[in-house]
């Protein structure tokens, strides 16, 4: 139930969004929206999947490449898995890319290319959780769905001066976000909340002087805005270790393998390696004069990985020829390993 404060916030926020909305390659801006243009559900879905745990700046170029190569859901559904994984390389969280293909094929083959319009039906699709379903329903179909990402959590915690820490307070922040969600232009409201959190109500040093809803912000009134939302202390991430084996043939070919579909970096190309654990055993893919080239640290969501890169000059059947090897197609971890190996090989040749 929206009270006077919530209605005032909604009105001020939409007026601000109409003036200040960020320009996004996947967004139908306020002016186009008022002229009758409506968002393409395919582009909304694709952008929201890419934006999961990733910044807008990182996603822009990926989105442009994907939509240039696969302009609609039917084109993406027909794409080869390896091509999609290669285009996704470097964006991280590779299960998203695998689910992207699964979802595209369901929508293309089973739903005649039409995305469902309700949160409940959207959540039945691969890779679409509560937030993504709400975002697609609101932005693509203007449904009054609740859309709560990190930006929205921060805005809501400050507006209502919610001092209990995350993550335990998430249900309360979702309830309060629902109170703010209007029946009129809910898709624009959702994007306005995201934009406010990204540009003004920022994690550090919020620009309260520019905020369109400052007069109704309880956090600002209490002088707590910079402290909110509060977060429970995070446990220290454990450290795992592993080996990566980079074999380069006399003609420059490289030995690669595709990782299993399930698990970290699933379905991506990479170098053979050991298990990742506290004390891994060396696991060279074949006998050779393996030399340590260096090591790197790569951080995943739940742990740090210290990876030792081993190199050998050796020919093996099935190597990817030098002309076909594109380091850009590798996930970030494997590109880091290749950079270390390449530098070591160049040094040996010099």
Strand content: 5-15%
Order of strands, main sheet, comes to 1-5-4
Counted beta strands: 5
Structural class: mainly alpha
Report the C-alpha radius of gyration, rounded. Answer: 24 Å
Distance between the termini: 72 Å
Secondary-structure blueprint of this entry?
Layout: H1 4-20, H2 30-34, H3 41-51, H4 56-69, H5 73-77, H6 81-88, H7 95-110, H8 119-122, H9 130-141, H10 150-159, H11 170-180, H12 186-199, H13 218-221, E1 239-248, E2 257-258, E3 269-270, E4 291-299, E5 304-313, H14 332-349
Describe this structure in words.
The protein starts with a helix and ends with a helix. The strands form 2 sheets. It has a 3-stranded mixed sheet, with helices on one face. The protein has helices at residues 4-20, 30-34, 41-51, 56-69, 73-77, 81-88, 95-110, 119-122, 130-141, 150-159, 170-180, 186-199, 218-221, 332-349, and strands at 239-248, 257-258, 269-270, 291-299, 304-313. It has 350 residues and is mainly alpha-helical. The chain is globular and about 75 Å long. Helix content is 43%, strand content 9%.
Structure summarized in a few sentences:
This protein has helices at 4-20, 30-34, 41-51, 56-69, 73-77, 81-88, 95-110, 119-122, 130-141, 150-159, 170-180, 186-199, 218-221, 332-349, and strands at 239-248, 257-258, 269-270, 291-299, 304-313. With 350 residues, the chain is mainly alpha-helical.
Key phrases:
single chain, 350 residues, mainly alpha, Endonuclease III, domain 1, Nucleoside Triphosphate Pyrophosphohydrolase, 2 domains, three-stranded mixed beta sheet, two-stranded antiparallel sheet, 5 strands, 43% helix, 9% strand
């Amino acid at each position: 139930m929206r009270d006077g404060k919530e209605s005032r916030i909604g009105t001020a926020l939409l007026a601000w969004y109409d003036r200040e909305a960020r320009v996004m390659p996947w967004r139908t801006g306020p002016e186009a929206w008022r002229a009758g243009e409506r968002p393409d559900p395919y582009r909304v879905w694709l952008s929201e999947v890419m934006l999961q745990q990733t910044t807008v700046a990182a996603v822009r170029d990926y989105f442009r490449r994907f939509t240039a190569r696969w302009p609609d859901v039917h084109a993406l559904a027909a794409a080869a898995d390896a091509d999609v994984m290669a285009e996704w390389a470097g964006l991280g969280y590779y299960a998203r890319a695998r689910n992207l293909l699964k979802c595209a094929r369901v929508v293309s083959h089973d739903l005649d290319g039409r995305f469902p319009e309700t949160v409940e039906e959207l959540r039945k699709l691969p890779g679409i959780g509560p937030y993504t379903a709400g975002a697609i329903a609101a932005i693509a179909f203007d449904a009054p769905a609740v859309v709560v990402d990190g930006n929205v959590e921060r805005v809501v915690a400050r507006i209502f001066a919610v001092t209990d820490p995350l993550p335990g307070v998430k249900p309360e922040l979702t309830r309060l976000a629902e109170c703010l969600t209007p029946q009129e232009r809910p898709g624009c409201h959702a994007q306005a909340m995201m934009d406010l959190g990204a540009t003004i109500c920022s994690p550090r040093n919020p620009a309260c002087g520019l905020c369109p809803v400052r007069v109704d912000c309880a956090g600002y009134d209490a002088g707590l805005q910079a402290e909110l939302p509060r977060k429970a202390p995070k446990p220290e991430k454990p450290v795992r270790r592993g080996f990566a084996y980079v074999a380069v043939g006399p003609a420059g070919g490289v030995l690669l393998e595709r990782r299993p579909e399930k698990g970290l970096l699933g379905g991506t190309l990479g170098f053979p390696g050991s298990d990742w654990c506290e004390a891994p055993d060396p696991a060279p893919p074949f006998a050779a004069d393996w030399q340590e080239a260096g090591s790197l640290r790569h951080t995943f969501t739940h742990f740090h990985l210290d990876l030792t890169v081993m190199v050998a000059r050796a020919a093996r059947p099935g190597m990817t020829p030098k002309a076909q090897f594109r380091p850009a197609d590798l996930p970030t971890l494997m590109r880091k390993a290749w950079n270390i190996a390449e530098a070591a090989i160049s040094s040996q040749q010099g």
